[in-house]
Amino acid sequence: MTTTGLDPHEDEVGTLPDALRVRSEKQPDETAYVFLRDGEEPDSTLTYRELHDAALARAAAFGAAGLRGANAVLLYPSGLEFVRTLLGCMYGRVAAAPVQVPRRREGVRRLRRIADDAGTTTVLTTAEVRDEIRDRFGALPELAGLTLLATDGPGAVPADAAGPALPAPGPNDIALLQYTSGSTGDPKGVMVSHANFLANVAETDELWPCEPHGTVVNWLPLFHDMGMLFGVVMPLWAGIPSYLMAPESFIRRPARWLEAIARFGGTHAAAPSFAYELCARAAAEGKTGQVGDLSRWRVAANGAEPVRWQTVQAFTTAFAPHGFRPEAMCPGYGLAENTLKATGDRQDREPSVLWLSAEALREGIVEQAGEDADGALPLVSSGGTVAGTRVRIVDPHTRRPCPPGRVGEIWINGPCVAGGYRGRPQESEATFRARVAGEEDVRAGTHLRTGDLGFLHDGELYVTGRLKDVIIRQGRNHYPQDVELSAERAAPGLHPNCAAAFSVDDGTRERLVVVVEADGRVLKSPGAQALRARVRDAVYEDHRLNADEVLVVRRGALPKTSSGKVQRRACRARYEDGELAASAVRTPPEAAGSVGEA
User: Fold this and answer.
1) How far apart are CA 482 and CA 476, in angstroms?
2) How much is the CA Rg of the chain, to the nearest whole Å?
3) Collapsed DSSP state (helix, strand, coil) of residue 65
4) Is the dihedral of CA 310, 490, 495, 543 positive or negative?
5) 3-state secondary structure of 467
6) DSSP letters of 234-299?
7) 409 in helix, strand or coil?
8) How far apart, in whole angstroms, are the C-alpha atoms of residue 12 and residue 22?
9) How far is CA 28 from CA 23, 49, 266, in A?
């Protein structure tokens, strides 16, 4: 299959700035990026020549400001200024740490924690965001000592600035500090090199080739690893246009994403599982009537872990009349510590699913069951590896390889594994340079410990959960995402990713807590009290687990990652601090005391 990706040797590409230079020479006036206003109409456009010139100008300005060789926080909304500045930082050898624009004080605290961890006081942003931050949060102590520099607006960057005079970045230089979600309140900066970026995008292009006339359509936040790789880096590598929209445009009306894919001929788009579920729900509610032809969509990368089989079926069925092909749904697995993608399902076949005995899986045993068998659980394959990446399943306690048919920790070896966490040598050694027991010889190589659980079947990875999130009851493992799915289905109208299940130690035993977000419609009917009872019943019916406490909170109360995934450990911390209980929806006094009250 013909792809449009660069050849690192023929094109002399060792870094992303090299890739931009080549594109600006070969395709100077072709469209590189387009930003869609409200997720619908093209608002601004960048050609490869324009992006190259803008990036060089910013690199020169950063050098003049003394930033060359330093770190800087990037604080941008989704848009083309983020793209210009990201490439400008790479040209100028400034290690960028992208962060979400804060809307609340907690976001400002996270901004400060990341700036401190990155060892910088410089925050690059737009003039509009700078002024907004100063107006809303200027009096907060967390902003003290931080310098907010606008890269747009009059005089921000000299239009005739020369390119960088010092040596260009090399493959082993740090291109990015990708901060993890920080679910424990302690975000860690993954040091991603240019070589890591190019290896990951080359593997992605091999797995999901970008053919001539391909197009990317992306709503994911650009500061997030998945949004950055699919929305910015992969299109640059492949030389195909990328249409970008703000995440808010998708969340407010999910059909906008599909409408843009149809309108602009999207061939590649990526999202977590919950986004596909939102689209399927919108179709069921008759809200996707303006979605056109989706037959050009070749890769619908599904990056949530694990991918829900019911969602795959619902989305595929809903949009088959629009030309969406089942084989376009491509589940995958990745994480920031591996730059992004580790495994993926190829685009020329439908997703694979295994029906397993839930009872055996709780014991860490992979035992296939019939689809109609009692307690049968569907697990969707996250595909296999390509190129130099290798996945192994290892016992997290003994560090020995697990035999076939057993669940263990997912370990990764390959060129996409990042260099470690900035300023955390001991944690980096334990996480990024783990060795399998009995293979301590240097030639055997080191591995990234992902902290995720799964198994291999016919060479493909199946993800079962997160090691630290597993709920243990009577010596048996229960995966929180299964409990959360039961809670989400307890009442009509609950949104995907609206529940968090975790255990807490009260000093005498482990207690199971389930927290559910609900909007005004659900709180009106069936109401908080009845919803708690339904959640308890559903969890017991599906898992034979008694929830010790069920909390109902309003939408937005659960902490989530930038891609929309619930942060269970942050939920547990807020629960233990009393924050979730304080924000819980209360039962009216006249209704108190009924069965199901938490």
Assistant:
1) 14
2) 24
3) coil
4) negative
5) helix
6) HHHHHT--EEE--HHHHHH-THHHHHHHHHHT--EEEE-HHHHHHHHHHHHTT--TT----TT--E
7) strand
8) 9
9) 7, 5, 22
Least confident of 195-209, 343-357, 484-498, 560-574: 560-574
CB 477 within 8 A of CB 464: no
Taking the C-alpha atoms of residue 581 and residue 585, their distance in angstroms, rounded to an integer, is 9
What are 187's two structure tokens?
């975000």
Distance CA 518, CA 355 (A): 31
* pLDDT tens for each residue of 127-144: 999 999 999 999 999 999
pLDDT at 387: 80
Sequence-separated (6 or more) residues with CB below 8 Å from residue 82: 74, 76, 98, 222, 223, 232
Q: Give this prediction's pTM.
A: 0.86
Query: What percent of the chain shows pLDDT beyond 70?
Result: 92
Burial 470-480 (b: 16+ CB within 10 A, else e): bbeeeebbbbb
- Short-list 237, 287, 244, 251, CA closest to 269: 244
**Residues 254, 259, 265, 269, Cα dihedral to 10°:** 0
Sort 439 into a burial class: Cβ within 10 Å, 0-12 / 13-18 / 19+.
middle
For tokens 């939102």, what's the residue?
Answer: 278
Integer angstrom CA distances of residue 550 from 35, 180, 287, 382: 42, 28, 32, 32
Number of residues that make up the chain: 598
Residue 414, sorted as left (phi over 0), alpha (psi -120 to 50) or beta, turns out to be: left
- The helix/strand/coil state of 202 is helix
CA distance to 452, 491, 562, per residue, from 517 (Å): 25, 12, 17
Helix %, strand %, coil % of the chain (to 5): 35, 25, 40
Give the chain's count of helices (H) and strands (E).
19, 25
Dist. CA 126–CA 149, nearest whole Å: 8
Residue pair 227/242 in contact (Cβ under 8 Å)? The answer is no
- Residue 510 above 80 pLDDT? no
Closest by CA to 40, choosing from 258, 319, 270, 267, is 258
β-strand partners of 513: 502, 549
| 589 preceded by a cis bond (ω within 30 of 0) | no
pLDDT, tens digit (0-9, with 9 covering 90-100), for 75-111: 999 999 999 999 999 999 999 999 999 998 989 999 9
Burial 298-332 (b: 16+ CB within 10 A, else e): bbbbbbbbbbbbebbbbbbebbeebebbebbbbbb
CA distance 340 to 272: 13
Q: How far apart are the first and last CA of the chain?
A: 57
Q: Residue 37 carries which DSSP code?
A: E
At position 303, the amino acid (one-letter code) is: G
HEC per residue, 74-113? EECCCCHHHHHHHHHHHHCCCEEEEECCCCCHHHHHHHHH
- Provide CB contacts within 8 A for 381, sequence distance 6+: 331, 345, 351, 352, 353, 354, 457, 460, 461, 462
DSSP states along 527-552: -HHHHHHHHHHHHHHHH----SEEEE
- For residue 513, the one-letter residue type is V
